[in-house]
Design goal:
By secondary structure, the protein is mostly helical. The protein has 16 helices and four strands. A two-stranded antiparallel ribbon has the order 1-4. A two-stranded antiparallel ribbon has the order 2-3. The chain is globular.
């Protein structure tokens, strides 16, 4: 029997091509052009794109748990809240360096994810979704009621920008550059984990937990590690928001954050490699586009999102594969 690689008329795919198709590369190129154009144009779009980079980091972690592992989590905003308030308290109250505060907040969020995830991840399906949603609501309520620590609705102001020692990132353009670099590093790190033995085990769990267990994958341990990884990404995003804006309040990390990140992930493509970045950029810019419709902006926003989900049910990043299948058919 001859090998398919010999009989096939197409050349064997390279390692890069096995990860991305041309359409996804083009989407990443457009996202990069949007960042460059924002740097040139400046103005209010700098803030919009900064938030898109932060949400992109959050969605990469969420995609790692939901897309690759196939688990539902509606409470990742809880870990973003830990990261944001951790950075705010350590920097404002104790004078920590922003970078050290960000790392310490990630460690705290990871410990909480370990403690909470060990019993919670024994649940499945909508039970797991409701448990994680409750986690987000509890954390949100604590951030409001524990005024001696979080200052309640008054929030924290005067949070220093990112920096090391005497070097601080004060310029809005440089903030965007730094956030884009952090997003790129987060994306590269997720690729490395996805292509590792651990990442392949997570994708096996997504297909069938029983089948993955039969292949020797320690399903509970892998799910817990994926949950912790998603929490670390969410905590980093929460800290980045605090250091970028300079002010946080409970509303920032409320249930609307979970809704927003879910929207970004589904628009970009759940389980796709570039989906989190594309979804974050497109959804952030879309909000500004429909803002000009006045009182109908929420309706216009919903219509555009529904059209996207109807005609691109697997997200914008999967359109290339859809067009390719139609062409082959």
């Amino acid at each position: 029997m001859t090998s398919p690689a010999i009989t096939s008329a197409k050349p064997p795919a390279t390692k890069f091509a096995s990860r991305f198709d041309r359409f996804q590369v083009g989407l990443l190129g457009l996202a990069a052009l949007a960042v460059v154009g924002t740097l040139i144009y400046g103005g209010y779009l700098l803030t919009v794109m900064q938030l898109a980079m932060i949400y992109g980091v959050f969605c990469i972690g969420l995609n790692f748990f939901m897309g690759y592992t196939g688990q539902a989590s509606f409470g990742q905003n809880a870990f973003a809240c830990i990261g944001g308030y951790g950075s705010a308290i350590l920097c404002v109250q104790f004078g920590w360096e922003p970078l050290l505060a960000l790392i310490a907040s990630m460690v705290i969020a990871g410990i909480f994810a370990l403690i909470i995830g060990y019993p919670t991840l024994r649940l499945r399906g909508h039970y797991l979704a409701m448990a994680t949603f409750s986690l987000g609501l509890i954390t949100y309520d604590i951030s409001i009621q524990w005024t001696s620590v979080t200052q309640g609705y008054m929030g924290y102001a005067g949070i220093p920008p990112l920096g090391i020692g005497s070097f601080t990132v004060d310029s809005e353009r440089w903030k965007l550059v730094v956030l884009a670099v952090i997003l790129g590093f987060s994306f590269w790190l997720s690729l490395r984990m996805r292509d590792s033995r651990f990442g392949r085990g997570l994708r096996a769990i997504s297909g069938s937990e029983n089948g993955a267990a039969a292949l020797g994958v320690r399903v509970p341990r892998f799910k817990l590690i994926a949950f912790i990884v998603a929490a670390l990404y969410a905590s980093a995003a929460g800290s980045l928001f605090a250091h970028t804006v300079g002010f946080i309040s409970p509303e920032v990390y409320g249930p609307q954050m979970a809704v927003m990140t879910f929207t970004m992930l589904f628009v970009g493509g759940v389980g796709t490699i570039v989906g989190p970045i594309i979804g974050a950029v497109v959804t952030s810019l879309l909000q500004e586009v429909v803002r000009g419709s006045g009182h109908f902006q929420d309706i216009a926003y919903a219509v555009v999102l529904l059209a996207t989900l109807i005609y691109a049910p697997k997200g914008l990043s999967a359109l290339g594969a859809l067009f390719r299948r139609k062409k082959e058919a």
